[in-house]
Amino acid sequence: MAKEFLVLGRPLTSTTTPPTMPAGEPAIVSGADSFSKLPTEIISNIFSYLSYNDLSSCLSICREWYYIGNDPLLWNELDLSNLRNTSLPHFLVPRTLHRRLTTCRSLTIDAPISIGVHHILTLLKCASQSPNLCSLTLTSIPNIRSQTKALEQFFLSVKSRNLQHVDLSKISISTSVIQALLQTSRKTLKSLDLEFSNVEDPVLRAIAQFEALEHLSLLDCFSLSKPGLRSFLSKRLPASVRVLKICWLPDVRIGWLYELLTKPGNRIEKIDVRGCDRLTLGDLRCLQKIKPELEMVHTALLEEESVWGYRKYLEYMGSLAPPPPLVGAAAQGPKREPFPAISTKQSSILASTVPEYGVP
After folding, report:
1. Among residues 41, 115, 240, 245, which one has the fewest Cβ atoms lying within 10 Å of its Cβ?
2. Range 207-224 average pLDDT
3. For residues 136 and 107, is the Cβ–Cβ distance under 8 A?
C-alpha cells in the first residue's frame, strides 16, 4: 500500500525517499499549521502570558483567536506598564480597553516609559469603576505628587469594596492619599508596600488605623523621624500585621522591637531588618527568645556592641579579598612639588625670628 507524506503541500509516494529525521525528535513538517491543532485551553494558557499590547494584536489574527482572546479570565490581571501613548489619543480610552479596565481584578503600572502622568490618571479613572478591583500596583511613576488631588480622588471613588493589595513603591505620595485609601479600604486592605517612598510621620498614624493589614513594607523610608518610628513600632502598629519590612532604617533600636513583640495580641511572624546597623546578633537572639517561631531576615555581623564584637567585625573585614593593585598613573599617585632649598643665611634669619619660651 502506498504511503503519502505531506511536505510543502506536495504529495510524496513511498517510492520517494522521505526526509530523514533524527531519532527521538518530533517530526515537524513545514507548511503545516500545528498551532491550530492545539486545544483551546492550551491556547488560552499561552495567551495568559502575553502583555496587553501583544494580546490585543492576537485578537486581529483570525476569528478563532478573537473569540479565545476575549475570554474574561485573560483580562482579570491587566499590566499596562508598556502601554504606548498612541493607544490613548487625546487622553481618550478606547472602548475595548475601557471595558477591560471597568471589569479587571488587578491593575499594574510599573515604571511606564511611553505614557505620562495624565495618561495614567485617565486609566485610573476607568479602573475606579471596576467592582472587582482587588490589587493595584503603581510604582516608579515620576511627577505623581503634582497630581495628589487626582490620586486622592481616585481612591475615594473606587467602587470595589475588596481592595486587598496596594503597592505605591518608589513614588512620591502625600498623607492625604493614604488617608483617602483608609476611608475606602480600612477593613479590607491586607498588603501595603511603601518602599523607597518619602512618606512622613502622619502616614504612620493613618496606617495604624487599618484593621486587616497583614503585610507592611517601609523599606528605606528615610523621611520618617526617630520619635515617629519608635511610637509606631512600639505602640501603633496594627495587631493584625504578620510580615513587617523595615529594612535600611538605621535608627531602629532593639528596645522598639522588644516592646513590639511583648505587646499583647501581636501576630508578627516575620521581620525583615536588613540594613538596621544598630542591631547585633545578640539583640536578635533576645528577640528570638521572646518569640521562638519568629522568622528574622537580617545582615547583622557584630555579636554585641563591645570591643570583642568590633574585633570580630575587623576579622571579618580582613578575611575579604584585597582590592586589585593600582596600575598606571593611579599607582604612582599625585605628583608633589619638592620644597625649595633654604640657604644658611635664610635659616639663621628664621631662627632669630622664633620666640624663645623660657623662664627668665
Report:
1. 41
2. 95
3. yes
